[in-house]
Amino acid sequence: MKLLVRNLARNTTEEELRSLFAVHGALQSCTIVMDKETGESKGFAFVEMPKVGEAKVAIKTLNGMDVDGSKIRVKKAEDAAKKSAGDSE
């Protein structure tokens, strides 16, 4: 399950994020979205967890948690293909 993590502090690292989520299960990927021009974090990330049950526990546990002074928001990421298909109907 792909998760969207928002409201990250600009200094939060992928390593820190991996550590937070790894407590709840295996990670497929963890990517903080960076600004192409400045190289700085845009304040959100995507985390993929192969097991849906573990991902749901991570959402429940980590949503609203204070990380590096920011209250993060964690939810299931919307599938861009589904969203596009839904918009065209």
What is the CATH-assigned architecture? 2-Layer Sandwich
Q: Spell out the helices and strands N to C.
A: EHEEHEEEH
Given the helix and strand composition, which structural class is it?
alpha+beta
The first-to-last residue Cα distance is 25 Å
What would a concise description of this structure say?
The chain has a single domain, classed as Alpha-Beta Plaits (2-Layer Sandwich). 33% of the residues lie in helices and 30% in strands. The chain is built from 3 helices and 6 strands; from the N terminus they run E-H-E-E-H-E-E-E-H.
Describe this protein's structure:
This protein is α+β, with helices and mostly antiparallel strands and 89 residues long. It has a single domain, classed as Alpha-Beta Plaits (2-Layer Sandwich). It has helices at residues 14-22, 52-62, 80-88, and strands spanning 2-6, 29-34, 41-48, 66-67, 70-71, 73-76. The longest helix is centred in the middle third of the chain and has 11 residues, at 52-62. The relative contact order is 0.28.
